[in-house]
Automatic annotation (TrEMBL):
Source superkingdom: Bacteria
Signal sequence coordinates: 1-35
Keyword DNA-binding: no
Transmembrane segments: 396-414
Taxon lineage: Bacteria, Bacillati, Actinomycetota, Actinomycetes, Kitasatosporales
Residues in coiled coil: none
Protein's UniProt name: Terpene cyclase/mutase family protein
Keywords: Membrane, Signal, Transmembrane, Transmembrane helix
InterPro entries in the record: TAT_signal, Terpenoid_cyclase/PrenylTrfase
Species name: Streptomyces benahoarensis
């Protein structure tokens, strides 16, 4: 089987999460209306970032690229923005890639909450796309599960990552997630907190989040997403600074009652517990998280480490983020060079969240490198991409068979937030 292109690295990483959790494939539970991705294009469309096949991650990588550019005051090319808006279905949803946008989305179009949530965050940040954002938010709320959360593909069980992505989208669109209720009256925050592992699990996992309730186990990717989502934040968080020293605390299981419900105190506690779990995991592995790819050799997960840094910054744990940030500066640019625009975007957003200069990130100008993966920005004070230094020795663990990801049956994993392909 042909190897998977680096463009879908992080999406397959999310697929590994599903496999590791022994998740029942969505293909067995989702409606047939969301079963078929668009075919691969023979020629990449104008305006698209990256050179890899967009079949599974086109909207995702475009959205993160545009969002990262906006965050560092780069005005994207009009063709890049037009490509993204042109991908939207009439009902407001986005899929990973529509080869023929003149053809309406039909029953076989694989609508995806993660692609839609990412597009909402990008278009809301850029401004001037209110109608598209409103339609997308309306679609997202129309497919909310009874528990208050979201799956990647409507009709399947909720998961922590998808729920966090949608919370970020709602907040970016000016909606209060606490006021968005499911048919059973549950909010997105209530749905998200169902994936939290509290005092009932072994001490090493307390505070972590699981990806899904089936086969529940501590999961770093889900924990990073949930730590950010519980605070009502999306992919972009205000710069906390490396010297912020709010401690990340694991759940106190020695008699002190944990906050219950989904009020502000409970959400802060959940985010802090997830951050404490991430810090512990990174401390144990040389200041980075490990890949959960089934069958793969133990390897660092660069993208998830970047997401963890953003999560720590979101909670004001800037001091705790400093060490993994330094690891990212050494190892992230080489990974992004192979993985593509969404990977560069993740690093830009991690730099932004920690008050680090993304134009000198371990010797690499991430902004110039990101800009070079797509159409020339309309306005950008960019420098030439310098030679990368201190790139470490991260191996290309993402080069795995596409069948692994497809077998997981998760639209976002093929299309993931957290978190990113070329």
């Amino acid at each position: 089987m042909a190897p998977l292109a680096p463009s879908r690295a992080a999406l397959v990483r999310r697929a590994a999460v599903v496999c590791a959790a022994a998740l029942v494939p969505v293909a067995a539970t989702a409606p047939a209306a969301f079963a078929t991705p668009a075919p691969s294009p023979k020629k990449l469309p104008a305006g698209l970032y990256g050179s890899g096949d967009p079949q599974y991650d086109g909207v995702w990588r475009q959205s993160l690229a545009l969002l990262a550019q906006h965050t560092v005051q780069v005005k994207p090319a009009a063709t890049a923005v037009d490509w993204l808006t042109g991908q939207q279905c009439a009902d407001g949803a986005f899929t990973a890639y529509r080869a023929d946008t003149a053809k309406a989305c039909g029953a076989s179009t694989m609508r995806d909450t993660n692609q839609t949530g990412a597009a909402v965050q990008a278009l809301a940040a850029l401004g001037g796309h209110g109608q598209a954002v409103d339609k997308a938010v309306h679609w997202l709320t129309s497919v909310q599960n009874d528990d208050g959360g979201w799956p990647s593909m409507p009709g399947s069980p909720s998961d922590a990552n998808s729920t966090a992505v949608v919370i970020g989208a709602l907040a970016a669109a000016g909606e209060d997630p606490a006021k968005v209720t499911s048919p059973k009256g549950h909010t997105p925050y209530e749905g998200l907190l169902t994936f939290r592992l509290g005092c009932a699990v072994k001490p090493a996992e307390r505070g972590a989040f699981t990806f899904q309730l089936k086969g529940a186990a501590a999961n770093a990717d889900a924990s990073a997403a949930a730590a950010t989502g519980a605070l009502g934040k999306g992919f972009v968080v205000p710069a906390a600074g490396k010297d912020a020293d709010t401690p990340a605390d694991a759940p106190d299981c020695g008699g002190k009652k944990e906050p219950t419900g989904a009020d502000a105190a409970a959400l802060r506690s959940a985010a802090s517990g997830a951050s404490a779990y991430l810090v512990k995991e990174m401390d144990a592995h040389g200041q980075h998280l490990m890949s959960a790819m089934p069958g793969a050799e133990p390897q660092p997960d660069v993208g998830n480490t970047a997401d963890a840094v953003v999560a720590l910054a979101a909670g004001g744990h800037g001091a705790a983020a400093a060490k993994p940030l330094a690891w990212l500066e050494k190892n992230g640019p080489a990974w992004a060079k192979q993985a593509g625009p969404a990977a560069y975007a993740q690093l830009v957003l991690a730099a932004h969240a920690t008050g680090t200069d993304p134009r000198d990130f371990g010797g690499t100008d991430l902004v110039a490198a990101l800009n070079a993966t797509g159409p020339k920005p309309s306005a950008a004070a960019e420098k030439a991409v310098p030679k990368e230094k201190g790139t470490g020795s991260i191996s290309a663990w993402w080069l795995v068979p596409v069948g692994l990801a497809a077998g997981a049956g998760i639209g976002f994993l093929l299309s993931g937030r957290r978190k990113r392909g070329q």
